[in-house]
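Lecture notes, unit on protein representations.

Consider one protein chain, 299 amino acids long.
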Amino acid sequence: MELKWIEDFLSLAETRSFSRSAEARHVTQSAFSRRIRSLEVWLGTALLDRSTYPITLTADGRHFLETAEEVVRLLTLSRADFRNRSERSSLPVVAITALHSLCLSFLPRWLGTLRGELGAMSSRVLPENFNICLQALVEGGYDLMLTYHHPGIPIPLGPDRFPCLVVGQDSLVAVAAPADLPRDREGRLPLLQYSRGSFLGRLAAIAQAREGAPATYPVHTNENSMAEALRSMALAGHGVAWLPRSLVAGEIAAGALAIVSPEMSMEIRLYRSAERARPFLEAVWSAAAADSKNYSGSE
């Protein structure tokens, strides 16, 4: 069971509309419906009477509504207490969620620049996949989100609630160990791929479809979609992997990996929640905005 299922139910109990609640929760209506159904399956009872319009709560739904409200209230109070403890620290704190690969390649240098401009500060970082990073920002647990961006994959964040800056540039590059790779009967190279539907997997699919990309066939799928794992597989000679250049720049320079396809440019974007505003966060955003002038495409 996930907390967001309960929050979905509370929204639905208020709006009595799947479409309005899905919009408010920043998910598609089909995904929202699946989450409500998952909650009902977990509880073992129907919470909604879907035969009425607008929908109504069943007797069990009305009973669970009181429990759900209390659970969310207590969890919110606990989270606020933990945050207050953190804010009582002598150092100002910024909470950031970022893609795993950016935590390795971009974030340490970027945080160093911020500390150089703003002075001593504390940082709390959640390295995760794109969907969890998005959830962490939208649900209010983190101030900022670092992610890649390509025009082929829109990011579902409205600019009013979640403004963004371009704070860096990177590229997606197909690399392989220098040794000859086994080709199939059609002359295609073995491909190390991300899980289907993952953010980096969708970026890689766009890059693979571009002119100049080598013909490939899949030999390995990394289900957790971590670029670092595919880098290790590529270094071991298992096939071609599409990876952020910043993640493999050292291996390319050392000759451990070779580029086998034209690169695809990507922006590194910093998103924030406009609802989270405090003086130090405004200072961080201003510093990031000043630095973003070095890059084109800021929003």
